[in-house]
Design brief:
Blueprint (H helix, E strand, L loop, with lengths): L1 E7 L9 E3 L3 H11 L1 H11 L35 E3 L5 H7 L6 E7 L6 E8 L4 E9 L4 E8 L4 E7 L3 E6 L2 E2 L6 E4 L26 E6 L6 E6 L3 E6 L4 E7 L4 E6 L6 E6 L3 E6 L8 E4 L4 E6 L6 E6 L3 E6 L8 E4 L6 E4 L6 E5 L4 E6 L8 E7 L5 E6 L6 E6 L5 E4 L1 H4 L7
Parallel strand pairs: 2-10
Antiparallel strand pairs: 1-4, 2-3, 4-5, 5-6, 7-8, 8-9, 9-11, 12-13, 13-14, 14-15, 16-17, 17-18, 18-19, 20-21, 21-22, 22-23, 24-25, 25-26, 26-27, 28-29, 29-30
Keywords: Phosphoprotein, Repeat, Ribonucleoprotein, Ribosomal protein, WD repeat
InterPro entries: PWP1 (IPR044285), WD40/YVTN_repeat-like_dom_sf (IPR015943), WD40_PAC1 (IPR020472), WD40_repeat_CS (IPR019775), WD40_repeat_dom_sf (IPR036322), WD40_rpt (IPR001680)
Amino acid sequence: MLTSFSWVPKGAMRPVPIHSTENLETVRAKLRRQNPRCAAEEAAGMAGETGPPVQGEFCSSDDDGGDGVDNMQFGGGVDTVLEQVESDDEDEVNDTTFKETDIVFVTASAEASQPRLELYVYDEPEDTMYVHHDVEIAAFPLSTTWLTDGTMSLCAVGTMRPFVEVWSLDVIDAVEPVCLLGGCVHWEDNYRKSIKTRMLKEESHKDAVISVRWNTCAQHMLASGSADSSIKLWDLNTSTCAGTYAETDKVQSLDWHREEANLLLSGGFDATAVLRDCRSPNQAAIRFATNGVVEHVEFAPHGGRIIYASTSNGGWMAFEARMNAKPLWQLQVHEADATFAASPHIAGLLAVGGKDGNISLWDVRDASRPPTQIVSRSYRTGAVLSLAFHPNSPHILGACGSRGEPLVYTTTTDIRDVFLSQ
């Protein structure tokens, strides 16, 4: 079973991966030296020069209110050791080297004997994929989100344990995560067979972490939702909890607004989608009643304050933040457990998947009216558990589910007639 699917943006992986041999701080310093932008900034600093920060693909400008990822300094264990991959076998080198054009994604495998993250490389012209390397994780995985600190490509994963693991995807055979968010006071206690509440840090979740979401605007922030009925905001600069919100039941899904860094959307077992402004923690959140346990929530990428939610009984609906009494529309798209993804590039394109294994594409350009189905197909994923559109390639959709096989679906032919101009 694959429980979660996360894309890695093109060019985000280090071209040559690293194996374990040096302590983590040495590795971070090495990665900074190998990053041309960081090297230029360090050289300027040594020369006593000052100037505007260099803007890159993974930096936030001052205008958007986000913190530059180069300011992140994740904490964590220091026993991981790394070395650059070296091989005389040209084929092996080619297989381990990442190109800027590579399509890379991460899945969370819930295999009972060895839960892990699997990093795939997809060859679009050949329509083939392979596992580049994998990472053993603490427990049954429930959610993932890609992120970066400016030197490493990272993946945060929520599991049945009461903490978030953050792993470097640039490292092969990593011994331990870059950092833990929450967890036990003593590092070694995090991996005991049983964790007692008294072992945990005061700021830690107390139960499984069901959802994790990186804030792409305020890039030092990550949100996590838990079976302990709470949402926590984590400061990635310090690996500490910056705030906690109490909910009435388990929190199953989270999403940050793509332009307004302070807006956080959540949904869970109380059959409610919740919109809150994290700048005003004492302000009452806006709540939207749904027709079942909320499986997934997202902001409409091109719709201002339009939000979508799907439920455990196969429902899918849209709300407008200023009209929280009733949904704009509501559909029964599957018999049970529906999830979805909104395209960040093609306005109004959404994909919906369900427990029955079907994946459908929808035209939702007019959010005030029920969407129109474009196509529906059954794939080898089994029950669909996770969907995501590629952040750089507008027509590529990723999916995974109960059968343990990831899917990369090129939607170009199916949507051409509907979204011709896009």
